[in-house]
Specification:
This is Asparaginase. InterPro entries: AsnASE_II, Asp/glu_Ase-like_sf, Asparaginase/glutaminase-like, Asparaginase/glutaminase_AS1, Asparaginase_C, L-asparaginase_C, L-asparaginase_N, L-asparaginase_N_sf. The protein has helices at residues 2-19, 52-57, 62-65, 83-98, 114-124, 147-158, 248-255, 273-284, 308-311, 321-331, 338-347, and strands at 23-30, 36-37, 45-46, 67-76, 104-108, 131-134, 169-172, 175-178, 183-184, 193-194, 202-205, 208-211, 236-240, 260-265, 288-293, 314-315. α7 (248-255) packs parallel to α8. With 348 residues, it is an alpha/beta fold. The protein is 32% helix and 20% strand. An eight-stranded mixed sheet has the order 4-1-5-6-7-8-11-12. The structure holds aspartic acid. Residues 31-32, 47, 77-79, 110-112, 135, 137 line the site of aspartic acid.
Amino acid sequence: MKPLFALIIVLFVCLTSFAQKPRIIILATGGTIAGEGASADRAAYTAGKVPIKSLLAAVPGIEKIADITGEQIANVGSQDMTIEIWMKLNKRINEIFTNNEAEGIVITHGTDTQEETAYFLNLTVRHDKPVVLTGSMRPSTAISADGPKNLYDAVTVAASPKSNGRGVLVVFNESIFDGRDVVKGNTTKVDAFSSPNLGPLGQVYDGKVIYYLNAVRAANKATPFDIKGLTTLPKVGIAYMDADADGGVVAHFVKEGYKGIIIAGVGNGNFNKAFYDAIDAAVKKGVIVVRSSHVGSGRVTLYDEVDDKTLGTLVSDDLNPQKARLLLMLGLTQTSNKDILQSYFFKY
Ligand code: ASP
């Protein structure tokens, strides 16, 4: 009798655990997905108005995928994203996974700086469980608002065990991107996100998640960047170089005490003589200067047209200027040794 009783208990536990839905916590930060306008077109809306509760109410069937709870971390247009909000997000994510509060996290976020938040979190969150960002191009009050579908898809991806160990992800318009390579590549279209160097990692379609690629660097959780206890990060500025630019912006950053400068150069991180002289002066003052590019895809390579050894510059590899800035800000919390900083750009 006893073994039969034990078998029944085991079967009961198995069945109930199979029936259990994954727990997903949505951390809302604002953006157009929470935007509200007076009319059904997109004109004159304000980002970051609608609370997470109302966003969820607009997604029929989402409760069938997961047990969802929402928390409002901020409610801003992502042009107003700050290091302080990033720190808050990082802290809450680490807390959720350390305390086993959820199987996955979705972050609703404006699209303007979503690629930056995704990479920042990718560099600073140590857990392997899914963290998925999403947003929308049309406000919640617009015709064919894309937010509800993106939110549904993001929850589907975050609830899938297939998403474990892939780093921070961005889900948009049925594509799954890795948070390191993803960029906002269009100012207004619904299909605004792309991954210029890799392509999407996978797709979410009809409620099913499928992966084609594994982004090795994005999935590397062994980063040295522990921001616990920090309230801010070293200042790093981006200097945009175009034809006949003067080097004034570089000199300005040096004067203002910036610890690092990212050059949004032309081509393979190139610049003219005026920039060269300003960079030379910056490096001689101990400022870390990293060559990146505003081309939009591809790598910036050492010792090509620029003699990095003589000038004392580093390169961003395939990180665009805004992502290179994040890595340098975090890198400078660890070291100002140029070899180590350069190794970060080849690793993370
Ligand atoms: N400016 C908005 C934001 O980034 C745009 C959007 O979400 O699509 O918050």
